[in-house]
Amino acid sequence: MSRQIRKRAAPEPTTGCGPLIPPLAETSRSLRQQVFERVRAAGLTARVQVARDLGVSPASVTTIVSELIEAGLVEEVATRRGGESGRGRPVVALGVRGAAHRVVGLKISDRDLSAVVMDFAGRLLAEHHEERRPVALAPASLLAVLETLLDRVTAKAGLARQELAAVGIGLPGYVDSTGGRVLWSSILAERDVPLGRLATERLGLPVQVDNDANLCAMAELWFGAGRRLSDFVVVTIEHGLGMGMVTNHRIFRGARGIGMELGHTKVQLDGALCRCGQRGCLEAYVADYALAREATTALNWTHRESQSMAILLESLHDHAKAGNQAARSIFRRAGRYLAVGLANIVNLVDPPLIILAGARLRFDYLYAEDTLAEMNALVLATGRPLPEIEIHAWGEMLWAHGAAALALSALGERLVAPVRDVAAQ
Ligand SMILES: [Zn+2]
Fold first, then answer.
1. What is the pLDDT of residues 345-402, one digit of tens each?
2. Could you tell me the distance, in angstroms and rounded to a whole number, from the CA of residue 278 to the centre of ligand 1?
3. What's the pLDDT tens digit per position in 116-134?
4. Ligand 1 centre from 163 Cα, in Å?
5. pTM for the model
6. Within the chain, which residue ranges are assigned CATH 3.30.420.40?
7. CA gyration radius for the chain?
8. Which residues, including other chains, have CB under 8 Å from residue 23's CB and lie 6 or more apart?
9. Distance 57 CA to ligand 1 centre (A)
10. Would you say domain 228-393 falls under CATH 3.40.1030.10?
11. DSSP three-state, residue 395
12. Would you say domain 13-78+91-97 falls under CATH 1.10.10.10?
C-alpha cells in the first residue's frame, strides 16, 4: 500500500475523548490583540465601548490601552460627543496611531504592476500603477521589478524606504503564504521560489507573500463589503481565475496553505490545456487567455504576446454586442463554465455571499441572467434561498490594497502580541 493511503481497522486506544486542542495560548487571540483589533476596526472608539464589546472589565481594557499608547501604537483623539447639536463637550476617543508605521502593498500580475502605501491606521498615502510585458521572470529579475515598484510608490508618498515597516506582495499562482514560498506562478520562470525570504533580504524589510485571490479577499475583508461579514467567498476573474475564502473573519487558505484553487478544479476530463500544465481546469475555459485562444480560432484573429489582452477582449466584447454569433458563443460558453464553478462552491462551502471581482467584470456575460440561471440549476435544490452574488469591478488597485492589508495584519500581529501578554490575561 502506498504511503499516501493508510488503513486503520479501529481507533487507537486512548484516554479521554473529544478533540485534543492545544493549550489556550497557542490558539486564541490575546486580550491585547483583541483590544487593538477593536480599536483599529472602529476607527475611533471609547475604552468603555471596547470593554463592552469584548465582555471584559473596563479596568483591564484601560491597562492594555495604556500599554498600547506607551508603545506608540494607539493614540487619544479629542472628539465631540455626538448628539443632535454636535456641540457636546469634547470627549477623548481611541484610534490607531497612523503615523506609527507605514506599509507598502505590491501586486504583480501578468500585465500589471500596482502598489499602495498606507499608514498604520490603513489610510492611503500613495498609489502607483504601470503595465508590464507578460513574461515569466527569473527570481532575480522579479526582485528587481519589485524593488523598483516599491521605490516608485514610496517616492510618491514622499517617504524613504527606511520609513517603512512592512511589505505585502501578491502574485498569481500557488503560494505558501506561511512559508513565503511561491510553488508555481505564471510570473516566475522557476518553481518553488522562497520569495518571502529573498524579498526580505533584497528590500531590507519584513515581507509577506500571498496568492493574489487571497489579497482580493483580504481587501474586501479590510476595506470592502466583507468587513461586516464573518463568512464569504471572493472569485476573481483576470488573466487567471482565483478564489479567496473568509471563514470566521479570517482568510482560509486550506489547512496546508495553498487550497482554494478554484481555477484548477477540473471541469472536463482530458479537456483544454491549462497554464498549470494539466488539462480540463476551470481556468482554461473562463480566464481571459481562454477567451483569447477561442477568439483567435473562431474569428481567425491573430494574437501575439505583445498585443494587449485588454484590447483583444474589448474587441471580442464589441463583436458579441454587435451580434457576432461566434463572439457570443465564446462568452456564453465561458459563462456556463463559470456557472459550474460557482455552483460547485455553493455545494461545497454554502457561503452567504459570493463576490465576483476583477476588471473583466465589465463583460456582463459573466453575470448575465443565463449564467446565474445555469448556476441555480446546478446548486442542490434545498428550498432555501441561494447565496447572494455581488459584482465588484474595483479596478486594478484592489489587489494592492489587499497586499497592504496583508502587511498591516502581519505587522499588527508582530507588534501587538508579545509573549508576555499571555500572563496578563
Ligand atoms: Zn490548471
1. 999 999 999 998 876 666 666 667 888 899 999 999 888 888 998 888 777 788 999 9
2. 5
3. 999 999 999 999 999 988 8
4. 40
5. 0.88
6. 103-218+398-416, 228-393
7. 24
8. none
9. 52
10. no
11. coil
12. yes
